[in-house]
Amino acid sequence: MSTLDEVGERDAWRCWLCDEPVDPEASVNSDRGPSVDGGASQKGKKAPAGVERLAHRSCNTGKGKIAPVVPWSSELFVVDPAPIVATVERMTRKGGREVVARCPSKDDADKAAAWLLDRLSRFAPQLRVTTQVDAGGGQFLLVLRSL
Questions:
Q1: What gap in Å lies between CA 37 and CA 60, rounded to an integer?
Q2: Residue 114 in this model has a pLDDT that exceeds 90
Q3: What does the mean pLDDT of the chain come to?
Q4: Burial (Cβ within 10 Å: 0-12, 13-18, ≥19) of residue 100
Q5: Which of 54, 99, 105, 129 is 20 to 30 A (C-alpha) from 1?
Q6: Where is this region: Disordered (predicted)?
């Protein structure tokens, strides 16, 4: 079991759920204070053994009541983005390949692909995936593929 400081340093003091900064000086009793998520999730499912991630106390507590939602960045131009949590669960279970969004331009798709890989590196570090951008029907499809 790691200490809060060890997990915080490893995760660059960012909440794995909301991807916002966590203040290492904040009280652990504060809603925005740091906490370590030991991997328990909704419906009694557990994360892989040894997975400890940094979260705000309120984010960590809240995910026990409702399924966590990991939003796509509002700075991206994506159409019909797949829910990130459900996609991660499917890819972890089945592997393979999944179209996760459509974009109007290749540049938009490339930006979304880079953002998604970066976000997944913190949200689901155990998931080994790569992205691919495929042209089709006047749009560009963002594909997540397991390694």
A1: 6
A2: yes
A3: 87
A4: buried
A5: 129
A6: 22-52
Residue 44: the pLDDT is 46
pLDDT band (50, 70, 90) for residue 65? low
* pLDDT-based confidence at residue 71 (cuts at 50, 70, 90): confident
CA-to-CA dists, residue 129 to 59, 77, 137, 143, angstroms? 25, 21, 25, 10
pTM of the model: 0.74
CA distance linking residue 13 with residue 33, whole number of Å: 11
d(CA 92, CA 11): 21
Q: What is the CA radius of gyration of the chain?
A: 16
57 against 110, higher pLDDT: 110
Q: Answer yes or no: are the C-beta atoms of 63 and 41 closer than 8 Å.
A: yes
Comparing CA positions, the residue from 10, 117, 89 lying closest to residue 53 is: 10
